[in-house]
Amino acid sequence: MKTCRSCGLPAPPSTLRCAYCANGFTPALPAVYRVAPGVAGYQWLRHESVLVLEAHPSVGVWRLCRPGSQDAVLTLQATDGPGGASPALIDGHGEVVATLAQPSGDAGALALVHDGGSKLVAVARGDGPSGIHLVDGTGEVTALASRAGTGARIALDVLVTRPSADAGEAMLFGILLALELSRLGELRGVL
């Protein structure tokens, strides 16, 4: 569902013009982001300078918040499972909106992303020593990420090929942050 910026009327994703005011819906264009380590967590930056979200560690979980707010858009936490820590993204109502699982039998896959149920919604695939492709459930590449810099805690430069609404932006940040924290061993299970 999308919303007309002119009059606020909701419309289905396939709609080209608003049924009420005839305002055209502009297609989402690719966007550039960065997952950047900061002093007290990580930042989700648009075009390397516009702060969109911040992630702060708090008692074993990571709270993804809008700048200047302590209210979490999503919370990232890991629970101990048979294969180690399994990251989960939880919304403000306490509902699991995504889980990341270690795939078995596919050396190129970094994580399988499921919705709150068991539906596969994306696969994070490795691309060489520093790249990540996020492929959605229809097989479309929705984001490309690559590590920028050297050392342990480095930034991820991200090209989002098919941007979605705010919830999708927070979800993408959460997925990439979960992958990076898992790589660093900084995401530990909470019992």
CATH architecture: Beta Barrel
| CATH topology annotation | Porin
Going by CATH, what is the homologous superfamily?
LURP1-related
Strand order within the widest beta sheet: 3-4-5-6-7-8-9-10-11-12-13-14
Spatial shape: globular
First-residue to last-residue Cα separation: 36 Å
Mind explaining what this structure looks like?
The chain is 10% helix and 48% strand. With 191 residues, it is mainly beta. It has one domain (27-184): Porin (Beta Barrel). The strands form two sheets. The protein has a twelve-stranded antiparallel beta barrel with strand order 3-4-5-6-7-8-9-10-11-12-13-14. Strands 1-2 form a two-stranded antiparallel sheet. A hairpin with a 6-residue loop joins strand 13 and strand 14. It is globular. The N and C termini lie far apart (36 Å).
Layout of secondary structure:
Blueprint: E1 2-3, E2 10-11, E3 31-38, E4 41-46, E5 50-58, E6 61-65, E7 72-81, E8 84-91, E9 96-101, E10 109-115, E11 120-127, E12 131-136, E13 141-148, E14 155-160, H1 166-184
Brief synopsis:
By secondary structure, this protein is mostly beta strands. Helix content is 10%, strand content 48%.
Task: List key phrases describing it.
single chain; 191 residues; mainly beta; Porin
